[in-house]
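Example 3.2
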Amino acid sequence: MKKVKDFIKQKSTILQLMFVASVLILVLVEISKIIRDVDWNQVSDGLLSQSIFSIIMMLILGMFSVTPMLIYDISITSFLSEKFNWKYILKSGWITNTFTNIAGFGGILGATLRASFYGKKSSKKQVLYAISKIALFLLAGLSIYCWVSLFIIFGLHIGAGLTKYWIWLVGGGLYFPLLFSITKFKNNAFFGDLTLKKELFLIMGSCLEWAGAGLFFIYIGLVLGVKFNILEIFALYIIASVFGVISMVPGGLGSFDVFIILGMESIGIGNADVIVWLLFFRIFYYIVPFFVGTVLFVHTLGNKVNEYFDGIPSALLQKTAHILITIFMYASGIIMLIEAAVPSFAFSNFILVKLYPLTFLFLHQMTDVIFAFLLIAMGRGFESRVKKSFWPTIIVLGIGIVNTLWRVYTPGLAWFLIFIMACVILSRKELYREQLRYSFGKMFVDGGIFTVTFLLYLLVGFLNFRPIGHKSIPVPEVLIFQGQQIWLSGFMGMILAGIIMLIIITSFTSDTDPFRKMNFDKKRIKKIIDNYSGNEVSHLAFLRDKNIYYYRVNGEDIMYFMYRRKNDKLIFMGEPVGNMDYLKDAIKELMTQADYYGYELVFYEINSKLTMLLHDLGFDFIKNGEEGYVTLKDFSLSGKKKRGERALINKFEREGYTFEMIEPPFSKELIQELKQVSDSWLDGQLEKGFSLGFFDEYYLNQANISIIKDADNKIVAFASMMPMDDKTLSIDLMRHSKQAPSGIMDKIFITLFEYGKENGYERFDMGMAPLANVGTSQYSFIEERAAHFIYEYGYSFYGFQGLRDYKDKYVSYWLPKYTAYRKRSSIVSTMLEVTSVVNSKRREQFRREISLSRFWS
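Structure, written as tokens:
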């Protein structure tokens, strides 16, 4: 016995899930029997004969008539030690009572459900006593109305044909006095906590329940326009209910209906009217509330299953619903466009013929086209998880569903469209983004659909409706169109659809986007660098051609990232600058905020440590180059290998070339002289930004510049310094005029190596050099080969391949650099966007955004 108890205790959650699932199956079996026995043609005819207002009122009043039953569940909680919130009581009560109406089994189902809902923390005895007391009072109201019916029949002399049923009314009427007497005069523990107030509350609940059902039954007859005496029908309803209770069939199904039919026949109401009356009563009092209860029950069951499996089922269901809705909206839109553009092809293709009934039906060509593009626009917002797309999607689908069912009603189509709407509601939590960001792939798909449809429509119009006298061209059978006026209507619809689609997409993409701000603030950036040191890219912030993201802890800036937006990507330049102890937290925050606004992150030219961290956070990566370093203590011009460099340096010294390290601020005259050298070196080519410095007066004034002068004291070459940390020396811009002698670059590097040694630096950063060793293996993926091709041949001006060979003669060691991107992203499209950003020309607008008054701050 103990083993059985332990087993039940261990498996309690699973057993509960099995129980609620079995209840759902049991009730669904019962409701399927009811639905199977319903003559839906009669229901359809009856509904069509009613106004929309009448149907809505039957829905509302049917739901309202069920609500008094909730009093039982409010009462049961007063007998238990555990306290429940009102939402839980209403939800549990609705499920219990609507299920009991359909499949009561003599109250067993209701008692079992209530024990499951309310018996978690109370003792078994408490639960059993509470449920039993509630069960006793379920028929109290019916018993009281038996006496009311006797008074109607014998006191008011209404319903003479019902007098023969007096024995049933007297028998039913005796139940309440007997119950009341037992609760008051039988002194035992069972009724010990049943106060007069609680008892009256239960009696009131039962009276309201039976009154609500009876009055709603009478209301249905009034809606149908049947002539009858209200009191007589109420008495008949009570007698039929007594028969139904005695039969112990849920809802009195069968026995109640037979008695009602026979009773109404005796008072002159035709069977046809009575059958529709009963059908409407079953639908709006039993079936509709039951479906609401089923939704609540499935939600409860889902919560239990979801909790048991740590939220996985809920996430899976939401994502599945999200995918299904996206596919449905795009597929429906495309099928409708095909049917509008090439109807002959659409109706001759057996696949499209089978799929078309599962979309929406509009009888006007213009409406067809507009609605198709509306679906595609909504589908894009939905696919991109944009919050603002939910209600427009609901409205668009709602219009389509109502229109389609109004024109072509079939139960199968109705259920399918209800399923689609349910999927939209289920996937609502998937919609969390503030805005839509278009990727290259998304633009290609949506733009392609519109462009292809537009061109195809023009082609169809040209082939079918050529001007008189035009050379005859046979029209392919699949492109035959039904009429010029219809084609013109569709063409106007396509133009309107394009405008509407553009408005919708614009509304989805427009929002307060924090990642659009440049956020350059010299004081904030310098403070972070001063506090935590810089790195090989930190100084590029002063180019002001990149956006800045600050990571703050307790209101203090401790890290900044540099990036640029490209479509749906935020492309970050190098590693962040600041306190690396918070690196993981900063990236997680950045990922969350970026995703919230529809962006994906790409990190360009980052070290292996950051790459591995990003890999753990769901990123993939590709190696795209190496950073070269010179160990300054090991550098020397002595030895046979360096005799060429020694000779070169000696030559420059003999010819009077001098080196000088100058500090800002720089005079206008000096800047102008440096610009002449830079312009000579550029030779008309436009400079690039992002990962490289460009000639900018403000930027150059942020760090020292090393210059080389000839014997005439004229600057022939310069290199702007790249401040990093106390141990690393590096440069950014390195320019020389066309008049500079050969070997001037070696002169700059060697002189800077010696300068670094003399000033206590340990290494010299030679900068990045792309590699040709990624994606070249026969085992490399095609995407890797394509990505490397894009990267390798994406630099038309700077010629990095040759630069690596040049740097290699000085470099002591190389450190790998990577590009990291989200795993679900295409590496090819990512590298195309990265290359586009890296090769973009310097942004003059960023320079204009900063006031001239700050240049010298």
